[in-house]
Amino acid sequence: MRLRGSGQFLIGSPQAGQRRQVCSLPNQPLLVHTPAKLNLFLEILGQRDDGFHELETLMMTVSLYDTLVFTEKRPHKNSTHTEETSEEVSLRCFDAGYSGSCHRNAGSALRQNATEGATGITEVPDGRDNLAVRAAELLRSKTGCRRGIHIDLYKRIPAAAGLAGGSSDAAAVLFALNRIWQLGLSRDELQSFASEIGSDVSFFLNPQSAAICRGRGEIIEPLALPNRLHFVIAKPPSGLSTADVFRHCRLQDRSPGVGSLVDSLRRGDLRTAGQRLLNSLQAPAEELNPDVGRLKANFASHNTIGHLMSGSGTAYFGVCRHRCEARKAAARLRASMKHSDQVFVVANPP
Ligand code: C5P
Predict the structure, then answer these.
(1) For 52-65, b where at least 16 C-beta lie within 10 A, e where not — what string?
(2) pTM attached to this predicted model
């Protein structure tokens, strides 16, 4: 199978040899790999009247992917329920586990390996509470489109981790259905719908792997960085609710801002970048969940350039000089952590 990059997404068809353009695939399933993100910087600037927090954050996608397979519902010829069946949005969620990188040849192999029923990812809702379904329903209500879709969602990005797996899935749905349903929506229109679904969703529709995000997180300034960065990520079995963590955060004195981190990343000065990592949500997360402090202590004893919790946690990451160092750090973390912790070696896409 061939996969093509399109912004943050890798797209293709699960049928081997399928290389046609996505727009001319009316009857074929479409497969989209969509990435997790890390926050290398997240500062809370204030509380807003709408209950959200004003923030400045540097987000970066990394090579840990969920996979969505979209199948158009066709009206069944002799069915009396033709309209009802073809107009529905439905979703099945599978635990696809983690392979160390994206399953580039997903499709039949992916189906065999996946476990139906979201084993080990009990936090991922299957029905209309899932952000992927909400994204499809929002597109239908905004555009008046009455077409249906079935989505098989293969989860690898841990939930309740600060890695934005649900937001990434929702962005992939907006991107894919705009093509499959031939809605002709611009990126700006998709991003404005995205911000109605969640604060992180718009980021995944911007074409760069990294961006500075402001407002609630939905105002995106794409960021071109010269070098590939390598990370090790650890996720404890427990998660945290984003709303809970924001509720417990206290405003701190302002830092010098994201600028000096961006400058050092642009210069390729990883040592300085490692000292500029910041997350205002980490202190409240540590208070709410002892696993975060445990990971922080564990990362502090390893040889990474810098380490930080991502988003509202509980995933924790270390910045490494190269992939080999990330793999060594991962091996040490696995040896020293609980069996149920998950450890990933990832990089930001080139
Ligand atoms: O936007 P999203 O649904 O991801 O946000 C989840 C919750 O996190 C919000 O309901 C809000 O309580 C909190 N939040 C916030 N400020 C932000 C983003 C999220 O207070 N900028």
Answers:
(1) ebebbbbbbbbbbb
(2) 0.89
